[in-house]
Amino acid sequence: MNLLRHLASLCTAFALAASTWAVAADPGAARDLDDRPDPALQRGLENVVRDLGLAAEVEAGHLSLALVDISRADAPRLAMLNGNAMVYAASLPKIAILLGAFVEAGRGRLPLDAAHLGEITKMIRFSSNEAATRVLDWVGRERLLDILASPAIALYDAKRNGGLWVGKSYGHESAYHPDPLHHLSHGATAFQVARFYWLLDNNRLVSPELSTLMKQALSQPGIHHKFVKGLEGRPGVEMYRKSGTWQDFHADSALVEDGSYKFVIVGLAHHREGGEWLVRLAEPLHDLIVPRSE
User: Fold this and answer.
1) How does 167-201 read in b/e, with b if 16+ C-beta sit within 10 Å?
2) pLDDT recorded at residue 31
3) Using an 8 Å Cβ cutoff, are 115 and 8 in contact?
4) Measured over all CA atoms, what is the biggest interatomic distance in the chain, rounded to whole angstroms?
5) 25 pLDDT higher than 50
6) What span, in angstroms and rounded, lies between the C-alpha atoms of 12 and 140?
7) Cα–Cα distance for residue pair 84/34, rounded to 1 Å
8) CA-CA distances (angstroms) from residue 29 to 50, 77, 153?
9) Residue 20 backbone phi and psi in degrees, to 5
10) What Å distances lie between residue 57 and 50, 62, 85, 95, CA to CA?
11) d(C-alpha 291, C-alpha 25), whole Å
12) Candidates 3.40.190.10, 3.40.50.300, 3.20.20.70, 3.40.710.10; correct CATH number of 2-21+35-289?
């Protein structure tokens, strides 16, 4: 609870400085991420997938990946496989609810006191469905969809085959608004999830002060599997992460910092072994960005 009190005090200190999302997310501030493909990184990603025996799974559409080197803020490098394929992503789209909460906080519509931050933290670190539904209702269900589809951030964009979508609570009720392109209740594309972290790291979702608090919620993952498990052999790694699992759907996403290197990794799998695929992928994809000698 000391962390929550600390975060709440930061929110109070930042209240006057926090900008709204519309100001922070200036679509003209830089070239967008899909304008940054890197052939060398793409070859590296394809080689890793081939070496792990997963090329056929990518070919069959069972695995989507995105990798973004953001070690140089002015020169991100993007590689992806099935990056614009929209799939059911289980709890991973809770990052969209996280964004909605901080957008509304920036507009003065949602208090970031210890009680609210506690629910947000449980939703992200421990993937609490009960907390996710509460935070979703604080934001507003249709309001969240408006935020995701806003031209300022376009994390759901028909021209990019969709993206992040939350059209159902994380309770037992039916979907209230499936996504218009693929009719998914909790959907994502690997590209748009990667773009979420890139925009967050560039303070283009909310103000810098609120971006720091969003990263606090994404830090210290409480579930040890997938990318977290896969990178446990790399000491010094800091991860800001959200995963998802439901039946044969396995998803993970992270902003990873390792010394002077920084990258985003996203994996979406639809296969009973998908969770293990993500464990196996994490280390070699890390090593595409961070030289082993360092």
Assistant:
1) bbbbeeeeeeebbeeeebbbbbbbbbbbbbbbbbb
2) 83
3) no
4) 52
5) no
6) 23
7) 10
8) 37, 17, 11
9) -80, 165
10) 10, 5, 14, 26
11) 33
12) 3.40.710.10
pLDDT class of 293 with cuts at 50, 70, 90: low
| Count of residues in the chain | 294
What sign does the dihedral 48-50-53-57 (CA atoms) show? positive
pLDDT in tens, 88-144: 999 999 999 999 999 999 999 999 999 999 999 999 999 999 999 999 999 999 999
Measured in degrees and rounded to the nearest 5, phi and psi for residue 150 equal -60, 135
List of residues 6+ apart from 176 with CB closer than 8 A? 141, 167, 168, 169
Q: Please tell me the distance from the alpha carbon of residue 189 to that of residue 247, in angstroms, as a whole number.
A: 19
SS3 content of the chain, % helix, strand, coil (to 5): 45, 20, 40
Kindly provide the residue ranges of all beta strands, DSSP E only, lying in 116-180, ordered along the sequence: 156-157, 162-163, 165-166
d(CA 241, CA 226): 11
Helix axes 141-149, 94-106, angle to 10 degrees: 90
SS (H, E, C) 35-93: HCECHHHHHHHHHHHHHCCCHHHHHCCCEEEEEEECCCCCCCEEEEECCCCCEECCCCC
Looking at the predicted structure, is the pLDDT value of residue 4 above 60? no
> Which residue type, as a one-letter code, is found at position 1?
M
Structure tokens, 56 = 């056929």
